[in-house]
Amino acid sequence: MRTIKNIRLKLKKRFEENTKGFMTWLSGCTMLSNGNVLIADYHGSNVLMEYSKDGKHIRDIPCSNEPFDLTVIDTDRIAVTYGFWQYVDMLNLKNNAVEKKMKFDNNCYGISYQDDKLFISSEGIVITDITGKVLKTLKVNCGRYLESTIDRIYFTDNRDHTVHCISMTGEEIWVHKVESLVVPMGITVDDHQNVYVTDGYLNVLTVIQHDGKASKTLLTETDDLDKPSALHYNKDKDVLLLCNKKDSAALYHLE
Q: How many domains does the chain contain in total?
């Protein structure tokens, strides 16, 4: 079991984004099975940006609107949220076609995929199957970002600066309040269930122990954090992808 006491991050690659438009918000990110990175710019030009693991811009993938967050379904498909536009697209990466559009009653922000289910931050946490059928809605104070694992859901609550871990049915497992977090944003979980959270106001990356009983700061402004927002952990490669809000991202190896 990896404990937070021993966790270190080693920078693998830092790269600048090929952003478009006057304003930028790198709001979502993920990693494909081939190691390529996908990044959403919520204030951009209706595209997802694809980069190699070495930071080379490969292509822009057209979207139906400004994408907020995204999650990998399989090697060919991703699901993309569109914030206040209140819908989710199932997007085929091979032909850029929208296979399914799922409409909701509220804004759709953070999204995560697990075991043929989508978990969406939308006035609580909405759980659907991959056709968009709503299976359950958890009435929790979920911020814009969430993450799911086999049997748990993790989310941040900006109102009281807390990070929550709940069961798939909504029962609270633990709540951790990090005094140093003012605006907790992006969240991801490693394969030991340690939780990583960005703070876009204080420019820090914090890790919370798998049982919610301890936390520590991993990165700060001195590590070139500048309004960090989106996070993604890839368990196959044991790397952490972090996006600063404006125009840069970095890949770190967990040690």
A: 1
